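Hi V.,

You were right to ask for the full record rather than a summary. Here it is.
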Amino acid sequence: MSARRQTPVNSLSIGLVEDANSHTVAGYPARVSTRAGDVLVLHVATTARRFRADFHRAGHQAPPMASVVWAGERAEPRRYDEDWQWPRFDFSVPSDWPSGVYIVVLTPEPGARPPTVEHLGGPALDARTARLLVLVTPSGPRNADVLYKVPILTYHAYNLSGGGSLYGPDGDPQGTAQGGGIARVNLRRPGGGVGGPVKGMPDAHDLATPRQTFAHWDAPFIAWLESNGIACDFCTDLDLHEGRHLDDGYRLLLSAGHDEYWTDEIRRNTETFRDAGGNIANFGANTCWWRIRIAEDDATVCCEKYPPLSTGGDPDGLRYAPDKWWETEPENSLTGVSYRNGGGHWSGIRAPIGYTVQHTDHWAFAGTGMADGDVLGAEHAIVGYECDGARFDRDPTGRARPTGSDGTPTDFTILGIAELPQGASQGWEFSARDDSYPPRAATFGLYTRGGTVFTAATTDWSRALMHDRRVATVTRNVITRLSRDQRN
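Predicted structure:
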């Protein structure tokens, strides 16, 4: 490639742009999670002679932790369903690094500086290239009572590096029924939370970061946890797939945002944790919606989204999709809720819908000052961009209660309910389900089966958390209670 030849930056040629005055760089980890004291393997390609990697631990400020300079090597991008096999670089993780999410900022030419000197915060945490996301998991016995799970598999489902995602080729937003309806992506390519292009529209309620990124969903929640002195260890859903961490004595498994894609192993291991008395708090929605499989190469993710003989379309609106959890084993039995009873609002500003609360004498509402019939989070449009619900009816006092006909445990206590507008002009989209009654509604609440499972039932809980005192109080109550007691 001559010094003046330019390759366009898009999902097929991520980060590999060169002209007379600029160089770019991109990369990915061989494996997202590692332990302190072990070797982290990165794969990086750049048009520069050298590049620098700056490591920042995500949190309230994301301070710099280490920096290293390597000789640069070129490599070509590949397809979204291939291992990109870029040049390898080994980094020895210091043995004293705490468990956490680390953002690696790649800079071509060591003379350039990263976006900020003291810390990497806010939108600078995020980029479509020149970033990697890695996790440091506990190196020995647990260091906290809370284990925070980062949904790497969902991030890769929306990752468009190489020209496609689990939603089909770039430019085909509804995907395709080609190839038997089985979509495939590879984990060994740029992206997966940060550092790659993503499928989806910008979020009108938070334009600073795009949806389907770590900076949008997880980073605000993790920053809130740190600023409130709540200690956590960290893992990925891939770690749970491999059977790691859940038998290490944690009292609470915590997640937030958008945790959509689950393997059988993740679900079984999580259910075993619950049944043994482990508590779960899911401050997100669209949870456990699609079943996926990981191939023998430990890098290819497969999802069969289309029914037999389907010619295409939006798979959420189709019945008999092989890998839609609810059609064979409703996720309600674990989460208490399902996306099929809620909905999604993907484009533009949503109506400011909040949860009409009930059972406000419950410990989850302690300190909020709320009474039954009050509305939680409406001023911040807490319900959406996707939300989950349980089938419900109402008792003689008007309180919503689960029917249990959809797999939701009958002891699921609905703490708040938000019925969704049904008219097409309101912008809400709904998946296929058995029938149209009751109305679609987000329902947040909890149940106990061995351990206690709490669900916020909306992806945007973490965004509202940063602005709404009562949302923050409920969050603190849930985490404090469920991280203290093994049984509730």
